[in-house]
Write a structure and sequence with these properties.
- By secondary structure, this protein is mostly beta strands.
- It is built from one helix and 27 strands.
- A five-stranded mixed beta sheet has the order 1-24-23-22-21, with no helix packed on it. A five-stranded antiparallel beta sheet has the order 11-12-13-14-16, with no helix packed on it.
- The protein is globular.
- It comes from Micromonospora pallida.
């Protein structure tokens, strides 16, 4: 019997732990399963090529290699991870650029009525900026997805130059999520045998100094207690950070990362899983696994970027697959929320909600043409009756 079949039987039979976070507020019998969406079925494609539920509309706010409408700014290629930040008169959406050497990140500033006020660069001349994460103090952590990549702290309003945060480790960074309760920043690593890290700054709000730790657990553990160990050499030379602690647990290609009220959710694309780290009780568990659903029913595959809402819903983007963003509800139902047909050579990146929760932003990194350089990327906005 294949290992993942054994795991399926074990997990479905044994159940999982109770989490303190919004998504898993009660004990659940199994990982999330396909079911009816709270928004209903997807309708045929709209004028922008997006399949959405009834009541939702889309618009394109930017295209790679073209001027952002109403501004003089040329939108970057290969848009990737993103986040939204409130302003006094609207909000800002920040987006990374996953291209070599000149990657960086850009921002679009919106007025209170949703119209575009400006667009501009906030980070330049960095390497393969993939995902990242927002901080509670209003900055964007842009992560380099290279073997000795670093994290850059940026200011979405462009008021300060970006600053390198090398004390957060040099490795193939993917995403970051801040835990203000334990004053930690969780970090994923996009390697086939990558690790899950946390950075504990000496002073919360100042990421210039602190301790870098790696999560430790048995190699085959999918549910149970974990520990943390310090990384001896965060520079990763000559030994990569993920190879410095023998007890470190390996993950098959870490991707998106999202913290919500006691739980940090992160995805691993190599095995189609959404993990849940219970930071209160220091336990690890599975929230979703595409092999732990009835054969032929998995609607969520190729898991990648992840975000969440105040209601406790998770939104998980797909890298390829059938180009969907799927919702995972607090009751453990997985269902498609939107789809981009005809863009199978691309991936969905950067899902993030506006501060009022009424608009969802995301990108198709390579667009319908699938250009590997990302020159056909498209950044979208979806508006509608999202659950409060």
């Amino acid at each position: 019997m294949e290992r993942r079949t054994v795991l399926r039987a074990a997990v479905l039979g044994a159940g999982t732990a109770t989490f303190a976070g919004a998504l898993w507020q009660q004990a659940f019998a199994a990982v999330a399963q396909p079911g009816p969406s709270p928004y209903g079925n997807l309708l045929p494609v709209d004028a922008n090529g997006v399949e959405l539920p009834a009541g939702f509309t889309s618009r394109i706010i930017a295209r790679s290699s073209r001027i952002v409408p109403g501004t003089g700014h040329l939108w970057h290629p290969a848009p990737d991870g993103g986040a939204c930040f409130p302003t006094a008169d609207g909000w800002i959406y920040v987006s990374n650029s996953e291209v070599p050497l000149v990657g960086g990140a850009s921002a679009v500033r919106f007025r209170a009525d949703g119209s575009i006020a400006s667009a501009y660069r906030i980070l330049s001349n960095t390497n393969l900026n993939c995902a990242g994460g927002a901080t509670p103090w209003g900055t964007w952590l842009s992560c380099e997805e290279t073997p000795l990549g670093v994290v850059y702290e940026t200011w979405p309003d462009g008021s300060r130059e970006a600053e390198e945060r090398s004390r957060m480790g040099r490795f193939k960074h993917e995403a970051a999520a801040c835990d203000p309760d334990r004053r930690a920043v969780y970090l994923t690593e996009d390697e086939g045998d990558g690790c899950f890290y946390r950075f504990l700054p000496d002073i919360w709000g100042d990421l210039r100094n602190g301790r870098l730790q790696v999560l430790c657990a048995p190699a085959d553990q999918v549910a149970g207690p974990v520990t943390w160990a310090d990384i001896p050499d965060r520079d990763g030379i000559p030994t990569a950070t993920r190879k410095q602690v023998g007890a470190a647990k390996r993950f098959a290609g870490g991707e998106g990362c999202w913290y919500d009220r006691g739980v940090c959710y992160f995805t691993t694309k190599g095995d189609g899983r959404v993990w849940a780290y219970d930071a209160v009780n220091q336990r690890l568990d599975l929230a979703y696994d595409d092999s732990l659903v009835p054969p032929g029913t998995a609607t969520l595959t190729n898991v990648d970027n992840i975000t969440g809402t105040r209601s406790g819903d998770l939104y998980v983007a797909e890298d390829g697959g059938n180009m969907e963003i799927n919702i995972i509800t607090p009751s453990g139902v997985v269902a498609p929320f939107l789809r981009l047909p005809g863009q199978s050579e691309s991936e969905i990146t950067g899902p993030a909600f506006s501060p009022d929760g009424r608009r969802l932003y995301f990108s198709s990194q390579r667009g319908p043409g699938g250009n590997i350089a990302g020159s056909d990327g498209i950044t979208y906005e979806v508006t509608g009756p999202f659950r409060p």
